Amino acid sequence: MRRVQLPRIGTVAAWRREARNLAAEGVPPEAILWHVGDQSADLFMASPPGPTGTATTLTLPRDAVASIEKALCHSDPERFARAYGLVLRLSRRDLRWGDRSDPALYRLLAQEKAVRRDIHKMHAFVRFREISPPDAPRRAFAAWFEPDHPIVEAATPFFAKRFGDMDWVIATPTLTARFEDGTLSYHETQNRTPPPDDATEALWRTYFAHIFNPARLMVSAMTSEMPRKYWKNLPEADLIPDMIRTAPARARAMQDAAPTLPLDHIARLRLDRPALPETDGLTFGTLKPALDACRRCPIGYCATQAVAGEGPAGARLMIVGEQPGDAEDLSGRPFVGPAGQVFDRCTAAAGLDRRAAYVTNAVKHFKYESRGKVRLHQRPNGHEVAHCRWWLTQEIDLVKPTLIVAMGSTAALALTGSDAGITTRRGKIEEGADGIPILITYHPSYILRLRQGDEAAAAKAQLTDDLRLAVGYLARLA
Ligand code: URA
After folding, report:
1. Which of 91, 182, 218, 370 has the greatest count of CB atoms below 10 A from its CB?
2. CA 402 to chain centroid
3. pTM of the entire predicted model
């Protein structure tokens, strides 16, 4: 018998290497014992190498490789032996990929499906708690999750893409994924204590309560999509029993109160409401929670959270963009996604320290249209910009900047009241509605839309020049 020991981290890659070598040596499936992680020595360890068969070079269809690698993330201890037997048969043309009448292949495909489902659950149900130390340069988050299968390495690159601008740790009972300064690494789990509570919990609870629609409640569908075993790690889970109990009455109340007006009329009615009374005496500390609670235009109902401006109180320069994008909506911070990267490059090239400026948006919630899993940016309309101007005024009153840079037409409209084109206005200073000078320039997303080439390079240079102009303007007044 040949004993093959696979590491707990990098198991699939190690299996691939071993399988290729064993096949080349002609070792048949029945002569191999597969193990993962440290195992104590057993009787077989001392056994001589097993019988040899026909040497085989592994060649597989691309689909087969992807499915087999997923199925290898199942918890079934037989998966390595099954997969090895299958790859030999497939490579020798003894089996056609996709032939579900073959019991081993049928089993592998079922396990692949179970793994994909487990990965989907992990993507949907991981909940981060903030654990940033004070003054840390990057925000840090931690989450605890208990998957059915060893999927940590297969599931976590998704989080690296989605939350690439923060540090995070996802611990499971076996492996822990750690993302630090843009690098993803895996470790055996040492500390099994779930991360501490903090405000992020409250945010998730509010979010869940808002997206819950009692009229569409189907308990069985809900529990099959979100099985009870995940509830204990969800901050919003203790709301679920009460929501289920009160759902019929709330659904009836929704029917009774059902509007007869089309949706855009409702939006306009909301816009006519006066300023929220609890926003009196707003401070930098109360700005974000007050914004989170704002529902006076429809965008707030769909976004994950509001994104308030960021920067020092008393910043001499305020920079205003359009509205948060997908990454900003998830992280709660302005200009951290792709447009933020262009913005960072241009500010650096202009000799402007982004951290010294107050960076915000004309509209505080992310407006989007869902296309499958993707949320496509939608430009806020004039009503929404006008409505959110109230919040921008609050920020201007708090910061009292000497100069404001308006990036793009939405910011220019909010700050000057004019929707004239940007191309002829950029690089010039206009009088703002608040009496503060407004320097108009391109929005970084405009540069992203131009993609590569001379036009994009020229627009980027112009945005940089305009930011340099802002630096010079402030230096002259200092
Ligand atoms: N675009 C904006 O206008 N603002 C952001 O914060 C991000 C993208």
Report:
1. 91
2. 35
3. 0.48
Which own/partner contact pairs does 289-294 have at CB distance under 8 Å and 24+ positions apart? 291/364, 291/391, 292/203, 292/206, 294/364, 294/365, 294/391
Domain ranges of the chain: 2-122, 126-188, 205-257, 284-477
Distance, in Å, from the CA atom of 349 to the CA atom of 347, rounded to the nearest integer, reads 5
Whether 321 lines ligand 1, by a CB cut-off of 6 Å, is yes
Q: Using a 6 Å cutoff on CB, does residue 446 contact ligand 1?
A: no
Residue 33's beta-bridge partner residues?
A: 3
Instruction: Answer whether 309's CB lies under 8 Å from 282's CB.
Output: no
Mutate to test the pocket of ligand 1, among 388, 443, 449 (most ligand atoms within 8 A of CB): 443
Hey, which CATH number is domain 284-477, 3.30.2010.10, 3.40.50.10540, 3.40.50.1820, 3.40.470.10? 3.40.470.10
pLDDT tens readout for residues 139-187 = 878 788 899 999 999 999 999 988 888 888 888 889 999 998 889 999 9
Nearest partner of 355 among 319, 323, 329, 391, judged by Cα: 319
Pairwise CA distance, residues 143 & 148, whole Å: 16
Amino acid at site 141: F
Tell me, using a 6 A CB cutoff, whether residue 328 lines ligand 1.
yes
Is any atom of ligand 1 closer than 6 Å to the C-beta of 29? no
Atom of ligand 1 nearest to the CA of 444: 1
> Which of 305, 319, 328, 395 is the pocket-test mutation for ligand 1 (most atoms within 8 Å of CB)?
328
**What backbone torsions phi and psi does residue 262 show, to the nearest 5 degrees?**
-65, 160
Q: Is the CB of 339 under 6 A from ligand 1?
A: yes
Q: How confident is the model at residue 110 (pLDDT cuts 50, 70, 90)?
A: very high
The CB of 361 under 6 Å from ligand 1? The reply is: yes
Per-residue pLDDT tens digits for 210-242: 444 445 455 555 566 566 667 666 666 667 777
Q: How far is the CA of 444 from the centre of ligand 1 (A)?
A: 8
Q: Which atom of ligand 1 is nearest to the CA of 338?
A: 8
| Residue of 346, 349, 419, 424 whose CA lies nearest to 381 | 419
Q: Which atom, in ligand 1's list, is nearest to the CA of 408? A: 3
* Stronger pLDDT, 210 or 286, i.e. the higher one: 286
Sort 92 into a burial class: Cβ within 10 Å, 0-12 / 13-18 / 19+.
middle
